[in-house]
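ok so for the tutorial part 2 we go from a plain amino acid sequence to predicted structure tokens. step 1 is just haveing the sequence, like this:
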Amino acid sequence: MPSILRHVWSFLECGSLPAALEAALKGLGYDFSPMFSPPSDSGPAQQLLRSALPIGLATVVITMAAFFRVPLLPDIGGDLSMSVADLGALTTVFALGRLVTDIPAGRLADKVRASRMMANSAALVGLASFLLAMAPVALVAYGASFLLGLGSALTNTTGMTYFSSATSHARRGASVSIFAAGLLVGQAVGPALGGLLASLGGWRLAEAAAGVFAVTVAAALLRSGRRGTVPESGATTGPSEALADRPQIPFRYRALLYLVPFAMFASLGALSQTLIPIIGDSELGLSTGAIGLALGAGGVFRLIGSILGGQVADRVSRKSALVPGLIGQAVGIALLALGSSTAIWLTSIMVMSLSSLGIGVAATMLADFSQGSGVGKRLGPFRFAGDLGLVISPVIVARLFDSFGTAVAVIPLAALLAATGVAIWLFLPETRWLEEANAGQR
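step 2 — the prediction. this is what the tokens look like for a chain of 442 residues:
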């Protein structure tokens, strides 16, 4: 682990993509070098691109630390005498922390440089992880989960605003998919590493390690900011920007786009962060390490889906990526209703994960409608809608699972995602060529 921390520290300070990673990405046909190559001048847009890589890695590590806790839920419940419903409430408290932060974070993301926002979020996640590692009773665990939610919301809203504004309209889908890929890598590595460390030394050791990772990121970002290795500019709009210059988005379009994160975060909170590990433990008898590895493998599939979704959104159309993703996730969730077996459980995780690209594509469409102006202010409510689903779903689905079983708990979530996909297809206009069309009319 010290070796990993040294690589994280050095990368965040220098902001250069390791050659091996760059070669691997090019081998997959996903070449970021034209987008992030050092520019010849030092204007705000060029500085933003140059700092994208360290911000992306910070997103990976902070998310990884926040997701250490997911496969640890059964062990936390056993140690702190928490029921399945209590563990669902733990995820709900995490979501509440995000909920109260989303809109303020969106406004700040338009005005404060991304490196400072990321450093603050890393410090919060580190503090919360250490607090959870030392929790003597459930009440302290709830407090730690709330703080984790605050840090998570700062990370997600800052990163999504940043990458939505970091490049041209034609490459916006790929840019947002880089941010989504960072989240997904963190969500893949975090549960796997957390489960592994828990199997070696217990869940408290795993959470303490998460705190070390997060604090390392915070220190590196603060140091690099003082040394000027991460550019100062990170805001997408200045304080003097006139509100009249911001394109108005019809309410019905915003409502449809906000429905996407609501449905997807509801399934994420209720299933990936709550019910999936509980089913693995109570019904399938899997170890914490095995559950963590399965969730980690799911994260890899989510990464693949995110990259493919970004490419389809840019090269074909936004809706051609978004709608199949929502329907595919609904199918993956519905598989859980077929019965309790390890094969079905794993297949469901992989199908859900591969299809969970909707957040990034929907955010891209919202940025398309905004035409790059005041993106953070609009992404705050977008993420608020998602975290509202994250707040509501875990406790409800956990209680349905306790009372009626898996099928009754998961089918409503699958139906919500499928209905959202159909509504997007029928009632939301395509935005891939929106800026070109508006430019032609001027």
